[in-house]
Amino acid sequence: MNAPAPATSAADLVARRPVGHSLEAPFYLSDDFFGLDIEAVFARSWIFAAAEAELPEPGDYITVTVGPYSVILVRDDDEEVRAFHNVCRHRGARILNQERGSVGNIVCGYHHWTYGVDGTLLHAESQAPGFDPSCFGLKSVHVRTIAGLVFLCLAAQPPSDFDEVADRVEPYIAPHNLRHAKVAKQIDLVEHANWKLTMENNRECYHCAGHPELQRCYFPLYNFTEKNVPPALRPTYERFVKAEAEAHETYESLGLPYATIEELDNRPTGFRIQREPLDLAGESFTADGKAAVKRLLADFPTARLGRLGFHLQPNAWFHFAADHAVTFAVIPLAPDRTLVRTTWLVHAEAVEGVDYDLDTLTHIWAATNEQDAAFVARAHQGISSPAYVPGPYSPTESQVEDFINWYITRLKAYLER
């Protein structure tokens, strides 16, 4: 009787990954790869965590869970955003169990060790003589904000290129005034699929015929050109070319940067940013393309600014219009479950029911998210079949290849250590 073939190691699977094809099944299905993804990717990259608008006042906090890590994001008394491991320095108890709230001090519910919102230990009852509170502050986590967006990194030494990325993208995002925005709505959706399928799905529009609401106002032309645009999309492409020329004139007159910067797979903090027109009225993500919010995010002289799109590896994408912004954060929960958190931001003084209707504001992306959840669940189900073999990416899926190449590069670097 022949012995069973030995299981292929993660390192072997990473090394033999064919360029231009989807990953082999274990990358999406295995517990081992899920743990590797947390340690090699999420714990060593800058990840999007929240908008500053989620922490409007000193003492406001949210907790972010990434695999075994729990992080407290809190606005301190100087109104800076701080990040700490959600672990008491006494005997390791989880300190804050709620997803969000507001505190005067951070108090562990076990033995009531008390920390300031700057992480310093303020009170620890019944300690031995010589106990030094300064040695037992909360362990900090690297945190950075870019124009109202909060990013964190769990690594002891985070990727050093983030400063450069921030310097290059902040001029694009800052005009949208997110530091003076508020949260209009936040929806958490659990997709029944591996997190990489969620990201792959976002990085292409090959499937965008499945988004009828989005296609009303959004040009579904990802990576299509004059030469390869299909006949069904030719009228859309011609509208886009005209709208793009008009938009570029507007951007230049307002001093808004719009050129595409695409460095998705050749650096530790892979990113893409671009400003481009929207269809119809060209103002927002609505059924008629008109602004969903009367009070614009900033003092723009026109609402017809299309969209600013920003992608960041490994877990985020963003859309900024003149009237509102939408952030998307992806957090792995299990090999077959992924949290997608969508947050709609509007001007801090915009009033629901007066300046905007919440259903109108959220309809297109809420519908699109539900459709994407169904698509990636189908993908995960299919990959779970023994009949699955990796298939080739379409030329219009080049950003999927960029994402997977970036991901494989991160795994190789981790495994080689």
Mean pLDDT: 95
What is the CA-atom radius of gyration, in angstroms? Answer: 23 Å
Unreliably modeled segments: 1-6
**Total domains, how many?**
2
- Known CATH architecture of the largest domain: Alpha-Beta Complex
| Chain oligomer state | single chain
Instruction: Output the CATH homologous superfamily of the largest domain.
Output: Naphthalene 1,2-dioxygenase Alpha Subunit, Chain A, domain 1
Strand sequence of the main sheet, in spatial order? 11-17-16-15-14-13-12
Q: What's the number of extended β-strand segments? A: 17
Instruction: Tell me what portion of residues adopts beta-strand conformation.
Output: 15-25%
Class of secondary structure makeup: alpha+beta
Question: What is the CATH class name of the largest domain?
Answer: Alpha Beta
Tell me the overall shape.
globular
Distance between the termini: 39 Å
Explain what this protein looks like in three dimensions.
This is SRPBCC family protein. Pfam families: Rieske, Ring_hydroxyl_A. Residues 47-152 form the Rieske domain. The protein has 417 residues and is of the alpha+beta class. The chain has 2 domains: 47-146, Rieske Iron-sulfur Protein (3-layer Sandwich); 162-416, Alpha-Beta Complex (Naphthalene 1,2-dioxygenase Alpha Subunit, Chain A, domain 1), CATH 3.90.380.10. The protein has helices spanning 10-15, 25-29, 31-42, 162-173, 195-202, 212-215, 234-254, 358-383, 398-416; strands spanning 47-51, 60-66, 69-75, 81-85, 100-102, 106-107, 114-115, 121-123, 142-146, 149-153, 181-191, 261-263, 271-276, 307-312, 316-320, 325-334, 337-347. The protein has a 7-stranded antiparallel β-sheet, sandwiched between helices. The chain has a 4-stranded antiparallel β-sheet with strand order 4-3-2-5, with no helix packed on it. Strands 1-10-9 form a 3-stranded antiparallel β-sheet. Helix 3 (31-42) packs across helix 9 (398-416). The longest helix is centred in the last third of the chain and has 26 residues, at 358-383. It is globular and about 80 Å long. It starts with 9 loop residues before the first helix and ends with a helix.
